[in-house]
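cron nightly-structures :: item 1 of 1
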Amino acid sequence: MRVVVDLNRCQGYAQCCFAAPGVFDVRGHEILFYDPAPPRARRGEIERAVHACPVRAIRMQAEPGVTQ
């Protein structure tokens, strides 16, 4: 699983940080840091972050050749 964030769309609302604090972090003035390849155990948190983002800047992608 890969996490993809459209940084041009992200507005720094930080809802992803509340939904998946081990994956997303906002530092300073709206600078988003995130793990693009988090462990599968965090899938539920990431799904919550995808749905929590008010501008829909986050999405999940399956790894090529890996079944979910």
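cron nightly-structures :: done
DSSP finds two helices and four strands in the chain.
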